[in-house]
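Hi everyone, sorry if this is the wrong subforum. Our group has a chain we'd like a structural model of before ordering constructs, and none of us has done structure prediction before. Sequence below.
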Amino acid sequence: MGERDRWIELLQSTGAIQDGHFLLSSGRHSERYIQCARALEHPETASLLGQAIAKVIDVPVDRVVAPPLGGLLIGYEVARHLNVPFAFPERGRDGSFVFRRGFSLQPKERICIVEDVITTGKTTRELLEVLHHLGVQPVAVCAMVDRSDVHRLDDLPIDSLLQLKIPTFAPESCPLCQRGITLRQPGSRNIEIQGEA
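Answer:
Right subforum, don't worry. Here is the predicted structure as tokens:
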């Protein structure tokens, strides 16, 4: 069994790969959802995944940073296996990322961003912008699953355990909506589903 098959089997066996009709944080719809929290709820599996991601990072890293909510567990595990500090931002009152809780990123620190799943890269780009303003140096972007089209963010390749090509649809042209399949919103962003408050 190859590495790709190994990770697909692991995500399927933990219920992290789900089929249905889903609203993604980007606002687009998909017939498959990757809920990495299901794999990460088991400490042994989280450790295995963190170790595997740590092994694909081929540049020196001073700190791992992960956006909430999905990236926190896997980000911590990657930092633990790299034996470097871990930090995470939170949403401020205006909705933008800020670092609180005494986290102090130092200028020129080499930062690895770790996500659970990257689709459009919207959250990761927000985090990259904040890190650039803080004067630190993002040197790597990693994910358990890369669903993106280009497998890059800014000038950084996305290093992942698994690349999956899963079609997404604009709500107005979604074939799942047209078939009347119930739309579910399993993610952590507060996006209103049509017809719901």
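For your construct planning: The helical segments are 3-13, 37-40, 43-56, 71-82, 122-133, 175-178. Confidence is low (pLDDT under 50) at residues 191-197.
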